[in-house]
Amino acid sequence: MANFSKPSVPRFSVDVYQNEYLPEGGREVNAIVTVTSTGGGTLAGATAAPRPAGPDAGAAVALMVDCSGSMDYPPTKMRNARDATAAAVDTLRDGVHFAVIGGTHVAKEVYPGGGRLAVADAGTREQAKQALRRLSAGGGTAIGTWLRLADRLLSSADVAIRHGILLTDGRNEHESPEDLKAALDACAGRFTCDARGVGTDWEVKEVTSIASALLGSADIVADPAGLAADFTRMMENAMGKEVADVALRVWTPVGTTIRFVKQVAPTVEELTGRRTEAGPRAGDYPTGSWGDESRDYHVCVEVPAAGLGQEMLAARVSLVVPQPDGSAQNLGAQGLVRAVWTDDMTASTSINPQVAHYTGQAELAQAIQEGLDLRKAGDIDGATAKLGRAVQLAGASGNADTAKLLAKVVDVVDAATGTVRLKAKVAEADEMTLETRSTKTVRVKK
Fold this sequence. Notes:
single chain, alpha+beta, seven-stranded mixed beta sheet, 31% helix, disordered N terminus
C-alpha cells in the first residue's frame, strides 16, 4: 500500500464571466461563476474544518450494497457487486474510517459491526473482503433504511469528510416515497453520496434524486461486469476530497432579488431552493465536498431599474465552510457580478458566450427529461419535438457524448434543425443511460 501523506488544504479561486451591460430599463443580470480548487496550497492562514491527526483520518466512507432478492438474477450480479465493493475497499487509504452495509428491506452492518466504523489498514481491508464473501441475496428494498444506518455510522467519526456509495438494482418497493424523502432530508448536509443503478430494473428518478439530495453523482452500470471499475473510480474520487461542506455564499444589495443559482458544470443541479440565510442580504448554497477540481455556476439576479451611465454591484460571490463553533470561515476567494446601464445597443444586447452556452446546456437536460417522459406517456409528437430540440442543442454545444446517447433513442434526420424520428425499438439500457446522464454537461471553451 502506498504511503499517502496528509492532504493540504486546497486553494480556491473564483472567476466571473458575464456581460455587465444592460439597456435602459434592463433588470436581469446573468453571470457564470467558475470555482476552482487546486491542492498543495494554504489559504492565507485559513484552514478547513479541523482534521484529526494521522494519515487521512479526516474521512469516513459507508458502502451500501443492495442485497435484495433480485440481486440473484442473474447470479453473477451479486458476485459482481461483492467484487466491486472489494475493489472499493482496496482503494481506501490507510486511516480512513469505513463500514459496509447490506441493504434489503432492512439495513444490516456487514463490517465491522457493533455500530462502529473500522479504520482502514491492510488488516481491516482484508477482514472486510472476507465479510463480503458471506453476502447473499434475499429480501426487499427500502433504501431509506440504508441511508439512515449510513448516517448513524458516519456521524460516529470525528472527521471532516463523510461520504456514501450506494448500489441498487431495483425499485424502492418496501417503503413509501415519503419515507425515502424523509431519510434524504435527514441525511442532507450530513454526508455526500454517489448512487449507482446496476442492470435495468431500477428507477432512474429514484437513484438520481438520492445523488442530487446528497450532492453526489448518479450513473447506470448496465452490465454488472463494469461495477468493479466504476466502484474503484468512485472511491478514488472520494479519497481526493479534502474540504467538506463548502457553500457558495451570494450577497446582494438592497432591492436586488436572486432569481436562481444553479450548478451548470460538470452537471446541471438546481440549488436555488437549498439556500440558507447567512446574515443580512446573504445566502449560502451547498456544493458538498471538494478536491482538486473546477465547477461552474449560473447566478441570475434581478436588480432595481437605473438610469443610463449608472453602475452597481449586483452580487458578490464567495466560498465559506462551517466551523465547529457554528460560524462560517471565508475561504479567501470572491467574485463580483456587476451591472452597468448603457445606450450602446451593441454592448447591451450581446450575450456572454459562457452564459449562452450553459443556458443551452440546462435546456438540453430539460428537453431530454421531458422528451423521455412524453415517450413513456405515449405522446409521440411531443416526445419527437423535445428530443429533436435536444439533438439540436447537443450538436450546437459540442456535447458529443449526449449526442451519441440520443442517437440510440432517435433516428437523426438533420441535427442542425433538430429533425428526428423516434426509434420503434429502443434498448431499455440505452433509454435509462440517456435519462441518467441527461444532466451531464460539457465545459464551455473559455
